[in-house]
Design goal:
Layout (H helix, E strand, L loop, with lengths): L2 E5 L6 H12 L2 E4 H10 L3 H11 L6 H13 L7 E4 L5 H13 L4 E8 L2 H15 L7 H23 L4 E5 L4 H16 L2
Parallel strand pairs: 1-3, 1-4, 2-3, 4-5
The structure holds adenosine-5'-diphosphate.
């Protein structure tokens, strides 16, 4: 099994690159943002609670996302590996993920960290808001709040995995294909170890 965390701020291209990576490597895509939006669409209690937090640009509680990831791991026993997108977003989530994977005799193979400037992020997210139908993409203060949550709570996740030498920084500006090629070359180096 080879498991990847695609890491980076909101708007860094994780969703776009995830689609290409799962197709190329046959991994199961686990995006907590997508899982939460599907709960909202189904109007579950969890979805209703998450929506008001997401609309403010804040992080939903660790226990909620860890629970969703835990059941997704259990429901995919045949997976060749997982691509985590938008998760883990706090140190507590990374520690929970490491334990869940250990329980399945596997671990994170690599953390690919996409790097994009803040102005480019805001520009991309406002543009995405024109068509994404996501209310958290149309309002600049909410976008800035999401970037601040990333800086305050999520960036440290990369320190957690750096201690194990698992983090690789990848330039997240350029064409979609150029960035995809950089990601693939990093994965290929590590998969063959
Ligand atoms: P983006 O990375 O563009 O902000 P996501 O779809 O990953 O988009 O996340 C949208 C929102 O969902 C976040 O702003 C946050 O409120 C919530 N969310 C997603 N994943 C997590 C997570 N792992 N922990 C806490 N909240 C999360």
């Amino acid at each position: 099994m080879f498991n990847i965390i695609l890491f980076g701020p909101p708007g860094s291209g994780k969703g776009t690159q995830s689609e290409k990576l799962i197709a190329a490597y046959g991994l199961k895509h686990l995006s907590t943002g997508d899982l939460l939006r599907s709960e909202i669409a189904k109007q579950t209690v969890l979805g209703l609670e998450a929506k008001s937090i997401m609309d403010r640009g804040q992080l939903v509680p660790d226990a909620v996302v860890v629970g969703m990831i835990s059941s997704a791991l259990d429901s995919n026993p045949e997976a060749k590996g997982f691509l985590f997108d938008g998760f883990p977003r706090t140190v507590a989530q990374s520690e929970a993920l490491d334990k869940l994977l250990e329980g399945k005799n596997t671990a994170i193979g690599v953390v690919l960290a996409l790097e994009v400037s803040e102005e480019e992020l805001v520009h991309r997210l406002l543009n995405r808001g024109l068509t994404s139908g996501r209310s958290d993409d149309t309002n600049e203060p909410v976008i800035r709040a999401r970037i601040k949550e990333y800086q305050d709570k999520t960036m440290v996740v990369s320190d957690h995995y750096s201690r194990f030498g698992k983090v690789v920084k990848v330039k997240g500006e350029g064409t979609v294909d150029e960035i995809f090629a950089s990601l693939c070359s990093e994965i290929d180096k590590r998969m063959s170890l």
